[in-house]
Amino acid sequence: MAKQFSPAAPRESSRSGLVPALLAFLVTFLVLMVIALFNAPTRGGPQVMRTIETYLQEVRTTAIPFLIAAAVFSAVLAFFFARAIRSVWSHRARRLNMLTGYAFLAPYLLVTLTFTIGVMAFAFYISFTRYDIFTPPEWIGFDNYARAFNGLVDPTARDFIQSLYNVFWYAVIVVTFQTAIAIALAVLLNTPMRFKQFFRTIFYAPSVTSSVVITLIFIWLYLRTGYLNYFLDLVLGIFGIEWEGINWLGDPRGLIQLIVQAFGGDIPSSQWYLRGPSIAWMAIMVQNIFTTAPTFMIMFLAALQDINPTLYEAAAIDGANGWQQFWKITLPLLRPIILLVVVLGTIGALQVFDQVYLATRGGPLGTSLTPVYLIFREALGQQGPIQMGYASAMAFILGVIIFLFTFVQRRFLERGTEIY
Amino acid sequence: MATTAQQVQMRADQAAHRRPTSYYVKHTLRYLVLILIGLVLFTPFILAFIGTFKTDAEIVAYPPQFFPRVWRWENWVELWNTDVGQGGTFPQWLFNTAFLSVTVAILQVIFGSMAAYAFARLNFPGRNLLFTFMLASMMIPGAVTLIPAFVLMGKLRLLNTFWSLILPGAVGANAIFILTQFFRSIPRDLEEAALIDGASSLQIYKDIILPLTRPALLTVFILQFQGMWNNFLTPLLYLNSPNKWVLNVALSIFQQQFKAQWNLILVGAMFNAIPVLILFFLFSKYYIEGVAYTGVKG
Fold first, then answer.
1. Do residues A360 and A377 lie in contact, with contact meaning Cβ atoms separated by under 8 Å?
2. Cβ neighbours of residue A283 closer than 8 Å, sequence gap 6 or more
3. CA separation for the pair A287, A249 (Å, rounded)
4. pTM for the whole thing?
5. In chain B, what are the domain boundaries?
6. What is the DSSP letter of A149?
7. For the segment B142-158, what is each residue's pLDDT rounded down to a tens digit?
8. What is the pLDDT of residues A281-326, one digit of tens each?
9. Is A358 in Cβ contact with B252 (below 8 Å)?
10. Does the ipTM exceed 0.90?
11. B82-296: CATH, from 3.30.420.40, 3.30.230.10, 3.20.20.140, 1.10.3720.10
């Protein structure tokens, strides 16, 4: 960290920082409390906010504990900020730096405090209540969380557990394939050749369009009368195999179930978790790999260009062929990027929504339910009553899972990521 | 080890500055594979594009013919002129999407570069803490903030307005992260010279940093523009009336409305994809370098 270059600034020790510090404390505390006030758990809807008085009335009835916790938190934060102000106030250059720094950061801080931290506090509080916006939230403790995990014991209430099961399969299959395909494409493109930029652009183009466009096109391709069935009909017809079209996005048969069925058995619905990802779900996976692989290919291409070519020359002199060079030089050096791609891919996989909403709405027999889709559905009451508390609880569980996953992945894959 | 005959051939080739045939074979094969992959990646789009010109009967026929018998441009006109009432028309949706994307992108560039300047160049207590906090906030899944943000917007009476998307979207940790890394890599000489001349931080930011980092700013703009254009969940949640729909949302409603008329639905998809693709082919360098930068420096 370079030293801040500043002209010789006289130390003005006569300026006591006490008043500005107190001012800073008050301002910070007020701003934070206003944000907390807006995020206070009350009844929602326009009639509540008709005037300030009606809203404050509402807050008084339902949100006092929340506001007390927020006040404590805000006071602590404001105190530290005030203390920092006081410590730099006497030194002109440092004071200027601090004021400028926070002035430049102000938009980011305001928006993040309101729409990320503030709302998260609200969500956390709500996850312990039963809340349907039109009535004040009602504290029910861990009931929402218990309900989410109820699917482990009760197969009829398994929505959330099944959604976790689905995205687990999704993450495993999609991340593996998209990373492998991305590396393969990048290695293919990474030779000195003409039209490299052209191919790079062409490969990336499908990723530029929105997931809605891609999903709709693929729904059409996956129809029973669609091109995929037709294509398989033609190709398998060459080998003399009869192909009866599958309704790809409506087929609930799981991968493992199909294998078992090929041997004459079957998996009963009470052991739904043994069935593996359904055909519909895998169809959506394929569609996604289509668009995400090129994005990661670009990242791998950039990383490949950073690899010192003399390493390959040295290996070639020692007699290594292309394959060995790939496994022993390229892959290990790509490790940090592979880690990044896997982490990003997993985070994305665990939050699939668009495709499910458009193509399957949770899919045949719940085999394409995803946590985010469930959260959306329960929060807006699209298939039953509005249950924001339950949705919030699911959201937090998902958040913890994502955090754990990325933490473990980092720990696991980050060994030995030295740069040569 | 090459045999004597091969060695002789190799020397002859080298003398004549000719490459061995295996080189040409390998290269042609490589090009063929690349063209094949490009075709495979583009096949869904090609099929969809051709499908937009088919009649209702042709689009659900099995086995599907590749080319339509007659190229029905009327499909495109029909969809462009769709009016679902309450001001819901294609030009309106196109405008909504473009307006949102441009606004959010510009705001992210402005506020993001301000924050990045503070992180990269200014030194003040709490800076490192805030930077770590920003990094951590990148890991928060959108699902957690989805509902409470919705409730908050309801209280602020911002539901079904563009503010509900612009306000939270005005700053983004992604943009700040990319810009901070970029700012850090610029040599400080110009700024130090300006400091000697008595420039304030604001002047340095406005007159030195911003012009110098134009490529990075443009990249951030394009990435955020694309992100907002392709956004589906938040517009679905917040923008409910037909005159506020974005293209993605309108398209999803078309799908439910037109059911089996895939020729029309695909026209809608094309309307959504074509502006973005045109923009992409014009600015592909920035798109791709932006994505690469996220990967390498992340």
1. no
2. A218, A222, A248, A249
3. 11
4. 0.85
5. 21-78, 82-296
6. G
7. 888 888 888 888 888 88
8. 999 999 999 888 988 998 898 888 888 888 888 988 988 888 888 8
9. yes
10. no
11. 1.10.3720.10
pLDDT digits (tens, 9 = 90+) for A226-238: 888 888 888 888 8
Q: Which portions of chain A are predicted below pLDDT 50?
A: 1, 14, 416-420
Q: What residues contact A107, with CB distance under 8 A and at least 6 apart?
A: B111, B114, B115, B170, B171
Chain B interface test: which of A209, A235, A306 (most B C-beta within 10 Å): A209
Q: Which residues of B touch A223 (CB under 8 A)?
A: 262
Axis-axis angle for helices B21-51, A159-189 (nearest 10)? 140
Q: Check if B281 contacts A (Cβ < 8 Å).
A: yes
Question: Would the CB atoms of A104 and B115 count as touching at under 8 Å?
Answer: yes
Question: How far is A406 from A408, CA to CA, in rounded Å?
Answer: 5
Q: Is B168 on the interface with A (CB under 8 A)?
A: yes
* Cα B191 to Cα B205: distance, rounded to the nearest angstrom: 9
Measured distance CA(B173)–CA(A190) in Å, rounded: 31
Helices A335-349 + A388-413 axis angle, to 10: 170
Question: Domain map of chain A by residue range?
Answer: 10-126, 150-419
- What would the mean pLDDT of B259-273 be, rounded to a whole number? 86
SS3 readout for chain B: CCCHHHHHHHHHHHHCCCCCHHHHHHHHHHHHHHHHHHHHHHHHHHHHHHHCCCCHHHHHCCCCCCCCCCCCCHHHHHHHCCECCCCCEHHHHHHHHHHHHHHHHHHHHHHHHHHHHHHHHCCCCCHHHHHHHHHHHCCCCHHHHHHHHHHHHHHCCCCCCCHHHHHHHCCCHHHHHHHHHHHHCCCCHHHHHHHHCCCCHHHHHHHHHHHHCHHHHHHHHHHHHHHHHCCCHHHHHHCCCHHHCCHHHHHHHHHHHHCCCHHHHHHHHHHHHHHHHHHHHHCHHHHHHHHHHHHHHC
Angle between helices B142-155 and A119-126 (to 10 degrees): 100
Best of A49, A213, A219, A230 to substitute, by most chain B Cβ atoms within 10 angstroms, is: A213
- State both tokens at B8: 């002789």
Nearest Cβ partner for A225 among B60, B171, B266: B60
Fold of A150-419: MetI-like fold (1.10.3720)
